[in-house]
Amino acid sequence: ENQLEAYTRRRRIAYKGSSHANAKQTKESIMLIKDMYAQGVSQEAIARLLEVSQASISGILRGATYVETV
Fold first, then answer.
1. What angle do CA 32, 48, 54 make, to 5 degrees?
2. Angle 3-6-8 from CA coordinates, rounded to 5°
3. d(CA 70, CA 33)
């Protein structure tokens, strides 16, 4: 209850996306991923280039992760 109230009253911030301490991607890399995919580069190739899993790339492109990043 206390945690919920802290978030509701903005006494505590829920860090999401690239602002989270454990985030592996930056806003710049998210934009790069989306640009490369729009140019026809496969998810697998992007994942190898950035040394992450293809599932991570898929989540970014589907909007399941890093949603607030343009």
1. 80
2. 110
3. 11
DSSP state of 65: S
Between 28 and 17, the more confident residue is 28
Cα separation of 70 and 6, whole Å?
28
Distance CA 22, CA 33 (A): 19
Taking the C-alpha atoms of residue 49 and residue 52, their distance in angstroms, rounded to an integer, is: 8
- Say if CB 57 and CB 35 are below 8 A apart: no
d(CA 5, CA 55): 34
Instruction: List pLDDT tens digits, range 25-35.
Output: 778 888 999 99
Picking from 33, 64, 35, 66, the residue whose alpha carbon sits closest to that of residue 51 is: 33
pLDDT for position 49: 94
